[in-house]
Structures are given as structure tokens and as C-alpha cells.
Amino acid sequence: MAILGSIIKGAIDLRDSLTAESSPVKEQQEVLQTLLKTAQDTAFGKYYGFSKILESENVAKTFAEKVPFFDYHEMKEQWWNQTIDGLEDITWPGKPSYFALSSGTTGKTSKRIPVTDAMIQAIKDTGTKQVGALANFDLPTDFFEKEIMMLGSSTDLSQRDEFLEGEISGITASTIPFWFKGYYKPGEDIAKIDDWDTRVATIAKRAKQWDIGALSGIPSWMELMMKEVINYHDAKTIHDVWPNLQVYTSGGVAFQPYEKSFRQLCNRDITVIDTYLASEGFIAFQQRPETTSMKLVTDGGIYFEFVPFQPEFIQEDGSISQDAPVVQLDEVVLDQDYVLIISTVSGAWRYLIGDTIAFTDIDKAEIIITGRTKFFLNVVGSQLSVNKMDTALREMETKFDIEIPEFTLAAVKINNEFYHHWYVGTNGSIDEEEFANALDATLKEANKNYSVARGKALKGVKVTAVSPEVFYEWNGKNKKKGGQVKMARVMGEEKFEEWELFAKEQ
């Protein structure tokens, strides 16, 4: 038995046994108090009277009453632009060391989100908690001797004025602790390669030099990397190249749409652990194997609030109305979709991150990601969330014995009638009309609002099947391959026309 592996596993087991049962609600109260005290003398803290809020009987309620919701553009225009210009103590004491670039699913223009030293430390602390949670997954001792392939964006950060900037995966990888560098692959030299295709080709060439036990990254890009490694070595599965691969840490998007195609690249089962690391912070991670839900990091420098995800509160651009009701962690209910609102040690305040979540276990503060506020399809009252779309497509995978890792759709007018036009990414062969009828029937059965819409203004469903590669090339054309880039699940009419032209040319 490997000595180092025994030491690491023993330390994790001991840490797990010594960790006291926490109270997520109490932790959140303490986080809010700390955030307000730390930032009370900033320009933002003075403007919104943080010192007065701290003196109130109900700090959380007063905070929600006095400070409005902010989306990225409002936060940037009203406050972060001053930080970008070099001013100190704007929304957080001092200046941030980094800016995280996040184009995400929104287009070519990158958001610039401040990342403070306090946030870097919070992310590291949460990463340590996640490693500690591995004690719950009954992994063999020798797993802790293996190397970890972290596939994110380039760690070659750009200097812009006095700040370093890059995607959050590149920032965090560039600041990993020294003791972890021996385990980290593909290593600093390869990780600095900015061009995705070149970086992946280099990984493929060197793959057999490494004893990879775990993978970490966004599923779509991880699949492409695995296929490149398999093809380069003329292998049948990834385990022919990395026989000791046992764990995949997913992140950025829900893993379920990719599960079937992902597992076909393996010749045995691997443990999949979900994480939720956004440009704004490390929000949640899967803590135990009995569930695919993730535990909110309630003691990690982020204070959470939740707005019920209902059409009357959602603006056309995905933002929320200022009069939308908000609840704290001790007021949430199961199986209700909520818009996630965060306040953080990077100086984001009552910030709309753009994701929707639902609680699966309130006592443990465990959640699933259910979609994006911008990807809520409510044309003619259909009220389709990404989670409902995903669930319907998983049924289609079973019914038609295919894999559908990617999709997008839009509400379009055909002969003056509304249709939902789906593009599904699959290498399988399907009858598009038969598939459309089956998908329509599944959505009618599972979603009352959709069924009502189909009986009124929504005329029908149209399906076009294309290779999943078309989606990846679209992302490469419009944004950048790899990193935090994700496919837009719902498109507006103008963007969908661009997409259709692109898809037809492939």
C-alpha cells in the first residue's frame, strides 16, 4: 500500500470524523454580518448605510429592503467601472488582484468580474472542503497517489492596466498551492497554451506519460479532450490510456445531458462528482455519493438569497423586477425554482448570477441547478425551464437509443404560427418528425403549462438533428473553445437565424 496515499486518505478520513455538524442558516447569518462589517466603509457600504443595517433587529430583512438587486451591467456601470479605473474601496476594501472574464453563454463580449484575494482564499478553502468530502465516496487508498487532469482555460493571464485577467478556471489554476503542483496536470507549461486545439493536441501526445486518477472540467470540452486522446493513441476507451481513472469532477453545467455519451468513452464505471464554480465564486459541490445534488457553500464568503422563479418577476432580458419577493435560506421550500442572488467577498452585492436552482434537501442546503433566467422559454405561455427540457431529452435518449449531449431551441413563426424549433446534437440516426412528436408528447405529459400552450397559441414542435460537433464549432466561432464557455439552450429570434445559417453550412 502506497505510504503517501495512506497518509492523505488517513488525513481526509480524520478531518471528516472531526468536522462538526454545521448549521447552514447560522453560517449564512454570520457570513452576512462579516460581509457588511468588512465593507461598511467602502463607497458602496456608505451609500447603502451598511453600518445602520448592522444595527437593525433583522439584518437580513433590512439588507434586502435597503439594497436593490443588481445584474452585471448595473453593477459594472454604477460601481465596478470605478474599480476598473483604479479607485480603491469601491464595493470591497482595497482593489481586486484579478478580473475574471466570463463570456459564458451570452456572446462575444466578456464580462469583467472582480476577484479579490479574499475570494481566492475562499475558493481555496472550499476546494479543501471538497477534497475532505472525498472521504464519503469510499475511494481506494491508491487513488490519492494519482494525478489530476484539470481542463480549464489558459493560465497565461493577461495584464490589463494594474490587474491580471483571465477566466476563473485559469485564475484558480494559476494560484494552486505548491504542494498540489506535483499532482496537477497537464502542468503549467501546457496550461498556459491559449489556443484550445493546440493545448488539447499537446495533452493527447503526452497523455501516456501521466497516471491520471481524476478529471476536472466542463463536460462538453472534457469529452472532446478524451476523444482526442483516444484517437491519438488508437485506443478504444479512455481507460486504455489512463487505466487508473476513477473520478470525474464535473462543473459549469449539469452533467446529466452528457452522461450517456461520456460513459461510452470509458470501459468501466467512474465516480462523478458535481461542482458549481462560477466566475463570481465557488457556490456548491456534491458532498456525498447518495445524491447528485450539491451542498451550498454557506460558510465560504458568499451570502445567498432566493427569488421565486415565476414569469411575472422575470424581465425579457433575464433580469428580475425590483419588487420581486426574496427569501432567505431558512424560508426556502423544496422543489421550487429560485433565481439565485449572491453577495460576496469580491464586492458583488445582491447580484443576479443568472442561474436558477431548486432545493432537494433543505436541512443539508443541497441544491440542483435548474437553468438560466435567460433560457426560460415562455413564449405563448409554455413556461419551459432548462431543467424540464433536459428531463424530456433524457427520455428521448432512452426511447430512441441515442445520445444527445447538446441542444438549443427557439420559438419561431412558421406561416404565422408559433412553433418550438429544436436543434438536437446527436450522432445517432432519427426520424425527425417521429422524434418531434415523441418530444412534444413527453413535454405535454410532464408540464401542465406547456400542454395548455399547445392547445392554444403554440402550434407544434419541429426538430432538426445535427452532429454535436456543430455546437462546439459554433462556440469556437462566436466565443472561444474550452474554459467556461457553454452553449445557449434558448435563443432569441435574431441569434437563432444566425445559428440556422451556421448549422446549414456545416
TrEMBL record:
Coiled coil ranges: none
Residue ranges occupied by any GH3 C-terminal domain in the UniProt entry: 390-494
Entry GO terms, CC: cytoplasm
UniProt xrefs under Pfam families: GH3, GH3_C, GH3_M
GH3 middle domain location: 297-362
Superkingdom, taxonomy of origin: Bacteria
InterPro entries: GH3, GH3_C, GH3_M
GO molecular function: acid-amino acid ligase activity
Protein name: GH3 auxin-responsive promoter family protein
